[in-house]
Specification:
This protein is of the alpha+beta class. The chain has three domains: about 60 residues; about 160 residues, 3-Layer(aba) Sandwich (D-Maltodextrin-Binding Protein, domain 2); about 180 residues, OB fold (Dihydrolipoamide Acetyltransferase, E2P) (Beta Barrel), CATH 2.40.50. The protein is about 35% helix and about 20% strand. The chain contains 18 helices and 23 strands. The strands form five sheets. Strands 1, 2, 3, 4, 5, 6, 7, 10 and 11 form a nine-stranded mixed sheet that branches. A seven-stranded antiparallel sheet has the order 17-20-21-15-14-13-22. The longest helix has about 30 residues.
């Protein structure tokens, strides 16, 4: 056993060392030679200053070989970050919502929050020949005039007037500096302002500044804020909603990288590729919205058409990779030799059973990659750049079941509805039926799990995916799924329920000692060796949608 452990550890070290040398993602700073050396400067329009500062700081921290700095001199800068696209070369690198705001103490908020504003009601408000009135928004007598303010930025007025189909020559509003607009709305409970989301963001708390509220926008124009349109609980939910299409695209401004001509300097291109990949994470932190996956891929291809590079660290030389292949082959040969030798020894003697130890698991042991949607039936969904959705089993479920021995899949081309059975997981004859997190058409099965179901256990979010599905009601159905921190909180509750589940059944289990360890914790692969009736009860309590 010790010999086996030494060999396994040695093999792991060999592969990890080779992987660190050959992989572009082994850590945040490895292989700096693949970043074009040299420094560039960029400049930024005032409203994007904070975002530019963060991007530059994070990029330089990760890739100090190709340094980027901020310059006040636009003519000497490689690129400019701006909200306008009035130069020869422009590329969208993020989005910024254009929003209607009101005083948080407006007495009409209760009504307006239920129905929202839409293109038609804004048209009536902004094109009124007399003094604009809240009656245009509420379609009822609301004896209150509305003072309307636009932030003095062309993208704000152009976006709102375009969305509402209003002639720019109308003059029943005032254009003011952003600071004056905020002050005016705070001072007048019936005022309405139009500005950028970042104009009303408190950078210290990442919330809307006190005294201001965003007016909900009725995207589908049916006169109600439906459940899928209700993205106004907090700033994080709102920016996420804009990103996935729950807010009118006409009211989504853009963040541009601009230049006199398309950049060709490799350091500049490396920085832009980073902005389109890792840098997208910092948009939300500054009140902006990420690019959609298709949009981001198109931008990447436009600056790296021949390579399709996704970030500055992806290019590698063949000389790096052969080290990994060689060391892996040596390690495999060593393990194979040990297996042959040890099998001969085992045939010669029967060893005594070694005491078994069990790993304890809790919510902290469960992997939950960012960007995935999770369902209560312990499945996940992720939209790929081509619009299809990859679906799989979450890490919690594989920790509970233990290594699977077989799966039964639905056929390619079949239509599935959310909540229908799509896969059966089997371990030595005991099984769990798993249900679809979304509706759509199955475009592909994962052939890897048909030949080796262990992929679901070892890599549930990568090699162990189950289906590729063409979605039917993606925007509507994702409102029922968990994302990020909400999933982690839910998994914590699942472990509480799991402890209660086994506590009630433990006295009837012949293998009760494998369920709990110190302090009544759950052990890894807790269902693996339990009888079928326990699996059936787990199915009804933790998997079935009707639970």
């Amino acid at each position: 056993m010790r010999t086996m452990l030494k060999i396994a550890i040695g093999l792991a070290l060999l592969i990890s060392i080779a992987g660190a040398y050959a992989s572009p993602f082994s850590d945040g700073t490895a292989d700096k030679t693949q970043i074009a050396e040299g420094a560039i400067t960029i400049t930024s329009s005032p409203e994007l200053q904070a975002l530019a500062d963060m991007w530059i700081a994070q990029y330089n921290k990760a890739y100090p070989v190709g340094m980027v700095s901020l310059s006040a001199n636009a003519s000497s800068a490689a690129i400019m970050l701006s909200s306008d696209n009035n130069t020869t070369w422009t590329m969208v690198v993020g989005h910024n919502a254009i929003i209607p705001i009101v005083n948080a103490k407006n007495p009409l908020l209760k009504q307006i929050n239920g129905i929202g504003v839409n293109a038609n009601t804004l048209h009536a408000l902004l094109s009124a020949t007399n003094k604009p009135s809240w009656n245009a928004l509420l379609n009822e007598t609301a004896n209150a005039n509305a003072n309307i303010y636009f932030a003095n930025a062309s993208e704000v007025k152009n976006s709102v007037l375009g969305y509402a189909k209003v002639d720019a020559n109308n003059n029943n509003w005032q254009e003011v500096a952003t600071r004056d607009l905020i002050a005016a709305v705070k001072a007048d409970i019936y005022a309405i302002g139009f500005c950028r989301l970042t104009d009303v963001r408190d950078a210290n708390t990442n919330t809307i500044i006190q005294g201001i509220q965003i007016l909900p926008v009725d995207k589908n124009g049916n006169g109600n804020i439906d459940a899928f349109e209700n993205i106004y609980q907090d700033l994080k939910t709102f920016t996420r909603g804009v990103w996935i299409g729950k807010y009118p695209s006409a009211l989504s401004g853009s963040v541009y990288a601009t230049a006199a001509e398309m950049p060709t300097n490799e350091t500049t291109l490396a920085f832009l590729r980073w902005v389109l990949t890792e840098g997208q994470y910092y948009l939300n932190q500054n009140g902006y919205c990420e690019l959609g996956s298709r949009e981001r891929l198109a931008k990447l291809n436009s600056i790296s058409p021949s390579t399709g590079e996704l970030n500055p660290m992806e290019t590698q030389t063949a000389s790096n990779r052969w080290v990994l292949y060689l060391l892996t082959a040596i390690g495999i040969a060593a393990v194979a030799g040990w297996i042959v030798a040890s099998s001969k020894q085992r045939r010669a003697a029967t060893p005594k059973a070694a005491p078994h130890t069990f790993a304890v698991i809790d919510e902290n042991a469960i992997a939950a990659p960012k960007g995935l949607y999770f369902d209560k039936t312990h499945t996940w969904a992720f939209m790929e750049p081509d619009g299809n959705v990859r679906v799989g089993i979450d890490d919690f479920l594989q920790h509970v079941t233990g290594t699977l021995t077989r799966v039964i899949l639905r056929k390619k081309g079949e239509e599935v509805r959310r909540g229908e059975k799509i896969v059966t997981l089997i371990r030595n004859g005991k099984q769990l039926d798993i249900y679809a997190p979304i509706s759509g058409t199955i475009k592909a099965q994962n052939p890897a799990i048909l030949s080796s179901t262990a992929h679901i256990n070892t890599s549930p979010y990568s090699n162990g995916w189950v289906y590729m599905i063409e979605p039917k009601n993606w925007l509507r159905e994702i409102q029922f799924l968990f994302l990020g921190d909400r999933y982690k909180e839910w998994i914590k509750d699942e472990f509480t329920r799991l402890k209660d589940f086994f506590a009630s059944a433990v006295n009837t289990m012949p293998n009760a000692q494998v369920v709990y360890q110190d302090g009544g914790e759950i052990i890894d692969h807790v269902l693996a060796d339990l009888e079928p009736q326990i699996w059936e009860e787990f199915q009804s309590k933790f998997i079935d949608p009707s639970r």
